Amino acid sequence: MAGKVTASEIREGVRATFTRVAETPTQAFRFPVGPALARQVGYPEDVLASLPPLASEAFTGLAYLHPHLDLRPGERVLDLGSGAGLDAVLAARAVSPGGSVTGLDSAEAMIARAQTLAAILGIKSVEFVNADAEAMPFDAGTFDAALVNGFFNLCPDKATVARELHRVLRPAGRAAVAEITFTDPLPPAEVQTIDDWFR
Ligand SMILES: C[S@@+](CC[C@H](N)C(=O)[O-])C[C@H]1O[C@@H](n2cnc3c(N)ncnc32)[C@H](O)[C@@H]1O
Which CATH code for domain 7-197? Predict the structure, then answer.
């Protein structure tokens, strides 16, 4: 592939890449994956040790967001781009009893991994939905809070996703967001193929 990469090629490339991460997380990627990354970005050792290896093997987030969200029992939480489910199961613990967590991801293999993790842990208050964030299958005001851990940077249409996130959060709902940003635009010559989307 050469020249300008279209939005639909990016969506397909993102889905294909995170399908590979879900299926074979130890293969080489252009970005870090796994438990060492989780430690590096601040997940406490005791938190990781309280979960099976499956929880962090395919982790690709950017930060330990939970202290910033201060989740409370009974709250309804969205994990946007939930990946292998680490944040979703931690959130499910935090909102118990009475709360619920919905993970949304466009890669079916990630959904399957996260569902297996929740089943192993016996967590019933979490569900994982296979959908695209540009058209979230939720009513307005469904969630009290959202975790967004390494997500917007992958989306070709960030404004639409931001509007969707705003719509599905209740008024005065809150979100904790970790992102990669560039301080300067990339030179066009460095954005020639879908692989250039992943750094
Ligand atoms: C960088 S990973 C982060 C995963 C997870 N938050 C974590 O901390 O490990 C981004 C995730 O978002 C999903 N994703 C990317 N674009 C998406 C979109 N437009 N709609 C839904 N999911 C998307 C990918 O499949 C991937 O699992």
Answer: 3.40.50.150
